[in-house]
Automatic annotation (TrEMBL):
Keywords: Oxidoreductase. Belongs to the short-chain dehydrogenases/reductases (SDR) family. This is SDR family NAD(P)-dependent oxidoreductase. InterPro entries: NAD(P)-bd_dom_sf, Sc_DH/Rdtase_CS, SDR_fam. The keyword Hydrolase does not apply. It comes from the Bacteria. Pfam families: adh_short. PROSITE patterns: ADH_SHORT (PS00061). The keyword DNA-binding does not apply. It comes from Kaistella pullorum.
């Protein structure tokens, strides 16, 4: 039985991936900052599979280290790491940007992936097997107005994925970088500081991707034959042609 650790499992892509992996027989370590939400998810998924929940803020290395060290011995052999947790805050020019927002994005989207990966890679190398899936964004492919810092953070994810692949392939460890386009989750609600009307407008007039669509893609990559390694995967809704262009007349 394989063990998968998923960050940002309390909602969106992370939660959908945990739910799908549970049906496929993975033992799960679901991680996030909201303990009550994690407990509820754990209770639901425990009906199908063994589940452990870990509460930590992935911007804080000491919290991650303490949480991972708390795992029972038989749970420390993590076969699949899904680095899903991340965030977007604000849509401002650099001149008007919030330092707090910048720190949240760079610490969560970039340093968080490095922190979690740093602690899990040694075990994978020792066993000469494993799979790391990093959730990037199409924002890494094309910078857009008022999204400089977010786009930079996601381009960094692409670079981290490429670097990990160069470092780890010889040890039998696969690394997959996934770039989703517009996915209807709480992403925009967070970006717009809880402004639900503004967030909802991002997804109106066309059919956005759903969290389960990205979970399906992650599952395909993780369950591919041992000789197959999906390095990079870009996924758009059919109405989106590139990061900045969505044809809202294309209702599905």
């Amino acid at each position: 039985m394989k063990t998968a650790l998923i960050t940002g499992a309390t909602s969106g892509i992370g939660k959908a991936t945990a739910e799908l992996f549970a049906t496929q027989g993975f033992r799960l370590i679901v991680c996030g900052r909201r303990s009550a939400v994690l407990d509820k998810l754990k209770d639901e998924l425990s009906k199908q599979i063994e589940v452990i929940s870990l509460v930590f803020d992935q911007r804080e290395f000491n919290q991650i280290e303490t949480a991972l060290n708390s795992l029972p011995g038989e749970w420390k052999n993590i076969d699949v790491l899904v680095n899903n947790a991340g965030n977007a805050h604000g849509l401002d020019t650099v001149e008007n940007g919030s330092i707090e927002d910048w720190d949240a994005m760079m610490d969560g989207n970039v340093k968080g992936i490095l922190y979690v990966s740093k602690l899990i890679i040694p075990g994978m190398k020792q066993r000469k097997s494993g799979h790391i899936v990093n959730i990037s964004s199409v924002a890494a492919r094309q910078t857009y107005v008022n999204g400089v810092v977010y786009c930079a953070s996601k381009r960094a994810v692409d670079v981290i994925s490429e670097g990990l692949r160069l470092e780890l392939t010889e040890f039998g460890i696969k690394v997959t970088n996934i770039q989703p386009g517009l996915v209807e989750t709480d992403f925009s609600k967070v970006r717009f500081k809880g402004d639900e009307d503004r967030a909802k407008s991002v997804y109106t007039g066309y059919k956005a991707l759903e969290a389960k669509d990205i979970a399906d893609a992650i599952s395909y990559c993780v369950n591919a034959p041992s000789h197959v390694a999906i390095s990079d995967l870009t996924i758009y809704p059919s109405a989106q042609s590139e990061p900045r262009t969505v044809y809202k007349s294309l209702e599905n």
